[in-house]
Amino acid sequence: MDFRLDPAIDQLRRRVRAFVEARLIPLEADRANYDEHDNLREDVLARMRGEAREAGIWALQSPKARGGGGLPFVAMAACYEEMNRSIFGPAAFNCAAPDDGNMMVLERVGSDAQKARWLDPIVDGRVRSSFAMTEPHPGGGSDPSMIRTTAKRRGERWVVHGRKWFITGAATASHFLLIARTSDDARKGHTAFMFHRDRPGWRLERRIPIMGPEEHGGHGELSFDGLEIPDEDRLLGVGDGLKVAQIRLGPARLTHCMRWLGLARRSLEIANAYVAERMSGGKRLAERESVQLMLGDAAIELRIGRLLVMHAATRLDAGGMARTELSLAKVHVAGALHRAADTAIQLCGGRGYSKDTPLEWIYRYARQARLVDGASEVHRTVIARSLTDAPDAFFDWNHVDPPKRSAPA
Questions:
Q1: Residue ranges making up the domain that contains 104
Q2: Are 104 and 57 part of one and the same domain?
Q3: Which domain CATH number covers 189?
Q4: Which of 95, 129, 185, 197 could connect to 175 by a Cys-Cys bridge, CB 3.0–4.6 Å?
């Protein structure tokens, strides 16, 4: 097993790192660059996006023919980690959620006409998008089979009624990917659609206040009261909604992990620099064994996380679904990010708890990692099922995805 990056990938990674160091990290120290939701101000973001595009490091997940970087997942992992060493990084490179996942799924399942209408504007940075699946109780969350929002066919149109919430980016999105129930079939009861924010029949009820800093557009609660969607804006076939969701969510979970590794690394970089200088009792903090143990434990967690991410990325690049590998990475990296931020704040003391560094921003952001795109408990269940269904295959060096369980009769 060779863990070295291809020279071309490593060169691109270094270009991303240089841009982050020179153009993005310096922005974090000036509170004037932040908007009211603790993210990068829109005019500053637009300027950084222009510079990233000019530098040839734009939308690296999208094909070169669409103006992106055309990277495989292994290369994305290396570059995304570097991007999110700045809290402003992913948005500046057009590699932030939810646009990131929406671009990848539209590339895979959209028709040529749908790609021209819905995908190209996102890749170009002309619009933003959202993925509308999660619902308030008693609707679907981690269990999408519970989705209650309905789309009923009337001729060549579908009429949507229901509610969604925690829809990331909803306040600024123009393009929405919606998952709605179209029948009571246990397997084929959901369908995926695209709609534009200008269509009547739906509204943004509120931007839900959250504990941490927000992505651009926040996390919205949506209501649908007769939204009409032309059948031509349906993705794949009627009843293929959960298939579309899984195609989207698997890679999107992994790109979350790629970015979280960058935030975790940045946390340890800040802590490492501080303990190397800070004196206590005649010693630098870095010379104290207790500090070394804290940093060492956090570093171990991150190295394990990177290996899990790269393993899953390799499986995806080989055409696998990598269900188990994605869950392993998601659980571990989400926890590792939180522990790295917590360790860094502890080592930096009051400075880490203040807004003099981005550590408190990262800490508040990190808490969501164990919730978004499937709670850690859900992914642990996926891992356990993979183990119990095929214990030998789980540890096999040439492990492949086990067959899906049959649905209960």
A1: 7-124
A2: yes
A3: 2.40.110.10
A4: 129
Please check whether residue 181 is in contact with residue 147, taking contact to mean a CB–CB distance below 8 angstroms. Answer: yes
**Which amino acid is it at 138?**
P
Handedness of CA 141, 147, 149, 153 (dihedral sign): positive
Q: Do residue 322 and residue 335 come from a single domain?
A: yes
Six token digits for residue 138: 């008693």
- Spatial neighbors of 332 by CB under 8 A, at least 6 apart, are 301, 304, 305, 308
pTM of the model: 0.95
Q: How far apart are CA 14 and CA 9, in angstroms?
A: 9
Residues 6+ apart with CB under 8 A from 171: 204, 207, 217, 218, 220
Question: How confident is the model over 268-299, as pLDDT tens digits?
Answer: 999 999 999 999 999 999 999 999 999 999 99
Q: How are beta strands 129-132 and 175-181 bridged, if at all? A: parallel
List, for residues 137-159, the tens digit of each pLDDT value.
Answer: 999 998 888 999 999 999 999 99
pLDDT tens, 23-32?
Answer: 999 999 999 9
Q: Which residue, of 185, 206, 239, is where some domain finishes?
A: 239
Classified as helix, coil or strand, 161 is strand
Confirm whether 403 is domain-assigned. no
**Do 287 and 386 belong to one domain?**
yes
How many domains would you assign to the chain? 3
